[in-house]
């Protein structure tokens, strides 16, 4: 089998060790020749790089491993770039979450004003990275899960329509794992139909390979428990605040019991509740910094100090195997069926062709082919149209440097109560993002 060369962009990410462990676990399916880390923060990446170097030398010395901040070195010769950068890092995630809360609006990484702000920071560096990849590795595919994926995907559609970039999200993967547990199946046994936008969608069918429909059974379970399950299957979403999110799916289902909701809909259906629940002084960014970030970097330091990874290991990003499934689909033309964020082009029959939607696709060597999901009901269609227009306005605001469109994007967001609140919020966001948004200063 061919061996592949992979660069992980955002090498200093808290997810990097989990992805590397997952790659090690999948070498029989996806052999690796070269593995590189690339980041623009040398200090942050060095700690993980040094620890992973020790670990890889012990576990798989045949892999040529290195880490760099030089894009030419990072991309040259690569087949795949797994991208998970966070522009502004946790420091700015914290601002994205806390500034809206000051105005009584939900503060969230990818939804509402925080998500729009994160998008406005991310478009430029993501496009720059795509250009670097194309310059140094013209045949390389970028499997991007950097957030906010919806806005990044729209920016790619407009600014780099021909680039080999595939945008994906792990939330439906994690939730499908929970569903498979509810019906006592393996995730791979289940085939879904789904429509929506990123972090904004619904399952309309969950069948096994024989065609048995499990949606009613899952619905009965979710009506009682949300997606809360007993055994740890959805490893990435286990913290107490995530458990609350899985539970809340019960109230999302109640709004339209025909379909199974994506957990992120809670920010649009119950924003007032979410604001009441939030601690404006200690948000998810703080939880992650005190939890995942501390634990990953202290494991790295421990490995470096002891000079061995024996006995202290990074945990495996097990549900991140979908990234290998996607890479394999491209590399081996496997025609894997996966949810992807793609241009609609008729997949949802009564929705705009040029909207970036999240739907099931068949993936082969040429990328994804969308599967038709037919017509969707007016309720979901109207919600999606509002949200996709927010995302489009954000991208237009970025390209044109338009304060007006930025304000409109915030005003249109279902999470923001008025144009006045939107404007006050925007002015605070601009102040906090001075370094990132010279066009608005
Ligand atoms: P993190 O801050 O730990 O890591 C991000 C890394 O990106 C940092 O080391 C940072 O220095 C680096 N970076 C920032 N800008 C860069 C640039 N222009 N070029 C190169 N490197 C750059 O963040 P994290 O919590 O580990 O998350 C990483 C990303 O993955 C985030 O965007 C997060 O939202 C995303 N994510 C997405 C999904 C999904 O479902 N799509 C799932 C999990 C995480
Ligand atoms: C899910 C979403 C990602 C998001 C992540 C945040 O996995 O699909 O898009 O980045 O949650 O998780 P965190 O643990 O950082 O709050
Ligand atoms: Mn996601």
TrEMBL record:
Domain Glycosyl hydrolase family 4 C-terminal: 194-416
Superkingdom of origin: Bacteria
Cofactor(s) essential for the protein: NAD(+)
Keyword Transmembrane helix: no
Gene3D superfamilies: Lactate dehydrogenase/glycoside hydrolase, family 4, C-terminal, NAD(P)-binding Rossmann-like Domain
Co-factor binding details: Binds 1 NAD(+) per subunit.
TM spans (from-to): none
Presence of keyword Iron-sulfur: no
UniProt keyword terms in alphabetical order: Glycosidase, Hydrolase, Manganese, Metal-binding, NAD
Family in the record: Belongs to the glycosyl hydrolase 4 family.
PANTHER family the record matches: 6-PHOSPHO-BETA-GLUCOSIDASE-RELATED, MALTOSE-6'-PHOSPHATE GLUCOSIDASE
Name recorded for this polypeptide: 6-phospho-alpha-glucosidase
Species annotation: Gracilibacillus salinarum
